[in-house]
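Q: Here's a chain of 386 amino acids. Please give me its 3D structure as C-alpha cells.
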Amino acid sequence: KINNSIRYIIKITINESSKKPLILRHQGMPMIYVRRDGFTSPATEEEIRNMVLNSDFPSFDKGLTDIDFERKDFSKYFAFCKERTNKDIKIKELESISFIKDGKLTNGAYLFSDNYNGDKTKVVCSLYKGVTRGDDIIISSNEFKGNLIDCYHFITDFISMRTNHKIIKKEDRRVDIYSYPERAVFEAVINALAHRDYLLNGTQINVDIYLNRLVISSPGSIFEGDGNIKPTYDLTSYSSKRRNEVISNAFILAKAMEAKGTGLEKISEEYRAYDKSHQPYIYCKNNSFNIVLPDLTNDYGVNIENESIYVIDKINNPTRFDISVLSYCYLSKRSMKEITEHIGVSNSTFFKSTVIDNLVSQDYLIVHKLGNKYCYITNEEKVKIR
C-alpha cells in the first residue's frame, strides 16, 4: 500500500529450458542469446557448446533409425562379444541399452552393423619418419570407413604391424619390450571409438605413428567443461560424462569397456615402470581429444613440452631433437650445456653440428654471445605457441 493506494506486484517466473539452445530470429537472422551480468548478449561458441552438452536433447547415438534389427546383420559385433565374454549376447540385453527400440536400430547400433560404410566412422592411420607431421614425408597413410568393430581391427592391425621390438638382458633373464603395450593400445582405441563426437561431420579419427610416439586423436573434446586440456600426465585429471551412451554400453556388454570408466587409468598402469619421458599423456585442442603413447623402444621418449609449439615451415634435415630444443629455448636464452642436459644427450660437436647449427642456419634458433659463451633462443617469427 503506497499513499493509501493499493499496488500489486506481478511475479513472472520463467523456468530454465531443458532443451537448449533456443534460437531467436532477430531481424531475419537466427541468434542465440544468454543473460549475463544483467545484460542480454549473443552467446559465445563455448557457451553454445555447453548449452548443447547440458540439454535434454537425445544424443546422436540414441536417435532412432527406420532400419529393422536383424541379428544376421551384426555377425561381427556378436563375434567380438563372444571372443571377449565367451557368451552370446541376448536381444533383451541390447534392448536394455537402447541398442534396439521397438524392433528398430538406433543410430549408435547402426554403426555396429556389418553393412555400415558411412563417413561417420572414418579413420586415417599414418606413419611418419620423424617426430612431427611437418618435418618428414609420410611413409604410409591408409583410410578406412566401416562398422565400429572393423574400425577397431583396422586401427589395431595398423599399429601392430608397425610395432618395434627390442630385448633387454638382465642378470637372470631377458625382457622383451614392444613399442606400445597391447593393453594401452586397446584402451586408447576403444576410448576413441566410444567417445568420438559423431555429430561433427567431415572429421575422422587420426592415428599417427611418429619416431617416438603414437598419437590417437578423436573428434570432439571432453564432453563437459571448457573443452580444453593442456598436455598432462594425469590421465584422470578431468571428469567427463559419456557422449555416446548406446555405443559405450555396447562396448561394455562386450567387456571392452568398464561401466566405471577406468580405461585411462589402465593406460597409466601399463607405463608405470618407465621414466617420465616414457609416460603417456592427454590433451585437447582444435576440438579433438588426444592420447599420446610414447614408444618404449625409443631411448629418448617424448617431451610433453613439445606439444606447446609448432614450426611454421618445414625443417630441412630434421632430427628427433629439433622440437625439444626449440621448445626449451622458447623465450629464454640457453647455453649448449643447458640444452644438452635438459634433453639428456652428451654435449658433443656432433650434436652441435647436426642439431643446433642446422637450426641456426635455417633461422629457427638465434645465436647470442654472452661473455665467453654462446646462447641460443628460438626465433618467434618461425616458431609459434599453440
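Q: Can you summarize the key feature?
A: The longest helix spans residues 182-195.
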